[in-house]
Write a structure and sequence with these properties.
The complex is a heterodimer of chains A (about 425) and B (about 240).
Chain A lengths: L1 H14 L2 H29 L2 E7 L4 H12 L2 E5 L5 H10 L4 E5 L3 H6 L7 E4 L6 H7 L1 H21 L5 H5 L7 E4 L2 E4 L2 H12 L1 H26 L3 H5 L5 H35 L6 H9 L6 H28 L3 H7 L1 H16 L7 H9 L1 H13 L3 H26 L3 H4 L1 E2 L6 E2 L1
Parallel strand pairs in A: 1-2, 1-3
Antiparallel strand pairs in A: 3-4, 5-6, 7-8
Chain B lengths: L2 E12 L2 E12 L3 E5 L6 H8 L7 E6 L2 E2 L4 H7 E4 L11 H9 L6 H15 L14 H13 L5 E5 L7 H16 L3 E6 L2 H7 L2 E6 L2 E6 L1 H7 L5 H9 L1
Parallel strand pairs in B: 3-8, 3-9, 6-7, 7-8
Antiparallel strand pairs in B: 1-2, 1-4, 4-5, 9-10
Helix pairs in contact in B: 3-4, 4-5, 5-6
Classes of the chains: A alpha/beta (about 425), B alpha/beta (about 240).
Chain lengths: ~425, ~240
């Protein structure tokens, strides 16, 4: 054990370089900075919106309409100009993103129930997502105006009936059923809630797998490049310990790195989602449907993620043996990335049940898929699928470890090489 | 003197290629035994097999009573190997590297300290041992690695081209260190292209070519047998 710890500490020290620490701190700081900026921008977009209005009508109707817009959380800025062109120019020079021009005779026309055209101008000052979203305020403005006016028309024509009852005569009560659990609520809202709660899990998994695999492949490649592997293989410590120390150290450093990245990502995404939090009502429905992760669920999920990481490390160890030097190690990570990306995107954008048989077999044959699927399987109560996935990963890991152990205990650790474009594997 | 290492009918195949075709020799306690031969003769492959890096295809290799195939762990406890192209961890300080390696052999802190002291004496790098290995010259790295190989007083030190890449002064120092090490009772199995070095260092020599040992004996006996002035001429005569 003492010898193993000696090796493990050395492996960790080799991996935790100044460059790694710097890149982690830098990434965190960068994400924090971007997240804060985004948060401020999102606040501006989702808060009270300023719109400029050039009212050429100045009727009681147009004033009432502007009052309605104010009630709908718009801040009205009346533009004082001599003409429509001057009003456009004034707003263009200012900061407002929207100008609404109410034409003369607007109130008269509406009081006669004749549709009247208003003009709207969106000032695209930037092509960023947030900038573009500002121009969408217009849609809200028109919708608020139409809502206000149609309500008034209906009230005038049919004073005894609530306009809302006329506009939406069919009401619906939505129920969601998952297995034997049922709750009232919107399926889309619940799906959104679950997705927002679990969206980080596949990202974390993908990052840890890629990070740790990269580290273990590089660690073996560096031993070869620096000509230290031969010496290490002749010291009195079992080859299994050498393999385990490399895998464990990469796993530990990979986890720590992924943690730092995730904290950074949280800051970053918090910028986008800070004001879009789920309501307690939706959370209550999710709880009722068993869509919240309890302690046991988290434990099973953690075990599933851990097994996926072990599989990746074992696979990376074998790939690392093929590397001749640090440079070739960079390309050898590709198979691992592919094996992670395929299930990541397939589980993100498609439903496994709707996949064709070959695609389904391919997906399930990749060990990492089972961890990506574990979250939704657990939410949906498919415990057997989760346990099967874990068993599959355990067997996969076992086979790879035995294979890695055999390679490290044989000549192959020194003689196996992958030569791109030449002879494939030289033994 | 009792044999520390016994190699009998050793063969090594890489696929269809037979790198060693049945090599036999013994190394006695306190003896420096050298393998000499041209590139591709099978010297390094033989050393790598004895160092437990390669598995023999046929034949027997025994260190004391331990068989290489059935008990490679026991082999590793009693040997140390210095490859021709070896390196040390560049981000480690010299002392840290030696300490790291010593921990594999020492079972208590006193033993580790003893090994370190020995290594510091062999390496003779003074204050530079506190610097990172990445800042060392090739000669300094070689001396550090030699110190690592010999500090634990292994029963058998396997040294592949021990003075590879060293200048004349450093080579002389390394040779003296190896001789001193053997005088203290440890055995050495080495290989070299440098016939003069072998003549100076070795108690016995084996001439190896195309995976076969052509002849073996003390440098003096070989020179007499082939009526040659030096080992280079001996080797040329043996090839004929």
């Amino acid at each position: 054990m003492k010898k193993f710890m000696n090796l493990l500490v050395k492996e960790i020290r080799e991996l935790v370089t100044k460059q790694l620490v710097f890149s982690l701190v830098f990434t965190m700081a960068l994400f924090y900075f971007i997240g804060n900026i985004t948060k401020e921008e999102v606040k501006k977009v989702t808060g009270k919106q300023k719109i400029s209005v050039f009212d050429l009508d100045k009727s009681a109707m147009s004033q009432a309409l502007l009052g309605g817009l104010q009630m709908a959380n718009f801040e009205i800025d009346n533009v004082a100009a001599g003409s429509k062109e001057a009003a456009v120019e004034a707003v263009r020079r200012g900061t407002s993103s929207v100008l609404v021009v109410i034409p003369p005779g607007f109130g008269d026309s509406l009081s006669k129930f004749e549709p009247k055209e208003i003009e709207t101008y969106a000032f695209l000052r930037t092509l960023s997502l947030i900038g573009i979203r500002k121009s969408e305020i217009l849609r809200g403005v028109i919708s608020a105006m139409n809502g206000y006016l149609s309500d008034n028309f209906l009230k005038a024509k049919i004073p005894d009936i609530d306009p809302k009852a006329l506009k939406t005569p069919i009401k619906s009560r939505d129920f969601i059923i998952i297995k034997n659990r049922q709750a009232e609520g919107s399926a889309a809202a619940i799906a959104g809630f679950v997705s927002s709660q679990s969206v980080f899990i596949p990202v974390i998994l993908m990052m840890i797998i890629i990070y740790s695999s990269q580290m273990v492949i590089s660690a073996i490649a560096m031993e070869k490049q620096n000509k230290t592997l031969e010496t290490l293989l002749t010291v009195p410590i079992s080859r299994t310990s050498i393999v385990t120390a490399k895998m464990l150290s990469s796993g530990i450093v990979g986890l720590i790195s992924a943690f730092f990245y995730m904290v950074g990502y949280r800051y970053f995404f918090a910028g986008f989602t800070s004001d879009l939090g789920s309501s307690p009502a939706i959370k209550g429905v999710a709880d009722k449907l068993g869509l919240s992760m309890n302690g046991n669920g988290l434990l099973v999920l953690g075990a599933s993620l851990f097994l996926a990481i072990l599989c990746a490390l074992a696979l990376a160890t074998i790939l690392g043996v093929l590397a001749e030097d640090f440079r070739s190690a960079q390309s050898l990570i590709m198979p691992v990335i592919l094996l992670v990306m395929i299930p990541y995107f397939l589980t993100l954008f498609s439903d496994i049940q709707s996949l064709g048989l070959p695609a389904k077999i391919l997906l399930l044959a990749i060990p990492f898929s089972h961890s990506f699927l574990a979250v939704q399987n657990m939410f949906l109560g498919n415990t057997k699928a989760v346990l099967f996935g874990m068993l599959y990963m355990l067997v996969f890991f076992g086979v790879l470890v035995v294979l890695a152990g055999k390679i490290f205990s044989s000549d192959k650790v020194l003689t196996m090489k992958l030569r791109w474009g030449k002879k494939k594997v030289v033994l | 003197m009792s044999a520390v290492l016994k190699v009998e009918g050793l063969k090594k195949l890489y696929g269809q290629l037979e790198a060693i075709k049945g090599v036999s020799f013994e190394v006695a306690q306190g003896e420096i035994f050298a393998l000499i031969g041209p590139n591709g003769a099978g010297k390094t492959t033989t050393l790598r097999v004895v160092a437990t890096l390669l598995t023999p295809s046929a034949g027997k290799v025994r260190l004391f009573e331990h068989d290489l195939k059935s008990n490679p762990e026991k082999f590793r406890e009693n040997i140390s190997y210095l490859p021709e192209e070896a390196g040390a961890y560049r981000n480690m300080k010299g002392t840290d590297y030696l300490k790291f390696m010593a921990h594999f052999y020492a079972d208590n802190p006193q033993k580790t300290e003893e090994f370190l002291k020995k290594a510091e004496g062999i390496a003779d790098l003074g204050g530079r041992l506190k610097d990172k290995v990445g800042t060392y010259s090739k000669g300094m790295v070689r001396k550090l690695l030699l110190a690592r190989s010999l500090m634990t007083r292994p029963a058998l030190a396997i040294l592949d081209e021990p003075t590879s890449g060293l200048d004349v002064i450093n080579s002389l120092e390394v040779r003296e260190i190896i001789r001193r090490f053997a005088r203290e009772g440890s055995s050495v199995l080495l290989s070299s292209h440098n016939m003069l070095e072998i003549e100076f260092l070795s108690d016995r020599v084996a001439l190896i070519d195309k995976g076969l040992i052509l002849d073996a004996g003390t440098p003096k006996a070989l020179k007499e047998k082939y009526q040659a002035d030096n080992l280079e001429t001996v080797f040329r005569s043996a090839l004929r």
